[in-house]
Amino acid sequence: MKFFIDTANVEDIKKANDMGVICGVTTNPSLIAKEGRVFEEVIAEIASIVDGPISGEVKATTTDAEGMIAEGREIAKIHPNMVVKIPMTVEGLKAVKVLTAEGIKTNVTLIFTANQALLAARAGATYVSPFLGRLDDISTMGVDLIAEIVEMFEVAGIETEIIAASVRNPIHVTECALAGADIATVPYKVIEQMTHHPLTDVGIEKFKKDYIAVFGE
Question: 84 pairs with which residues across the strands?
Fold first, then answer.
């Protein structure tokens, strides 16, 4: 399973990229708004840092296919690595069909059922983004959805990649990897949490003390 980072914070992207663990970036209107910067400027800076797919979403206020298509074309012009993020709606599927036919990569977001993922894939989506955490929030096992989509795509021979989204903790990451997700897009905080274990900290401290005892500082 590959890793994308889910943020529009350039500093967090730099830190994750320096670790060598991410190969792409996903953003959304809420993440862009949180940074308080111009969309095109943020995306262009992100593209200068990470050499991989970068999802930029159409405006949250754009609900018609024509509008999404027009915005998608502009997003695609920002950088060759751009992926146009489209919400899972009837109009969104129409937009995906047109953009895909034009050679523009798409990522269908806000997916909460296997049927939604199937429709998005058949419309031509490059990626589908099922949301785990938000399903967990309503007492539904989000990882079960990932497993269901993985099985469905394998049976049907669908090549659309599955991005596990709304990942809230390291356990989500492990579960998504075991379920067969192609990619997990995670906040920097979760990536950082994954690097830690108390026994690792104890081991490092012991090695340090043993070395100093023999060789000194």
Answer: 56, 106
